[in-house]
Specification:
73 residues; mainly alpha; 66% helix; 0% strand
Length: 73
């Protein structure tokens, strides 16, 4: 069970409004938000994974590649 105390009234009203718009209870709406949030990896984990990747050598800098493409267009 999770309880959140001292939720500001404007925030509570907006959450209730959004839940009603989706024809959900406030509980089911909040549960959906929490499930969606924890289904994504945290930003620091994504940054670590990207940093751990092997760099790709394109033979030219990104700026040079863009310049070449623009010349062809």
């Amino acid at each position: 069970m999770i309880q959140i105390r001292n939720v500001p009234d404007p925030l509570h009203r907006e959450l209730v409004r959004r839940a009603k718009a989706r024809r959900q209870t406030l509980t089911s709406y909040l549960q959906e938000i929490l499930e969606r949030e924890v289904s994504r990896p945290p930003a620091d984990e994504v940054v670590e994974r990207v940093a751990a990747r092997t760099p790709v050598d394109l033979g030219k800098s990104a700026a040079e590649l863009l310049r070449d493409e623009r010349r062809l267009a």
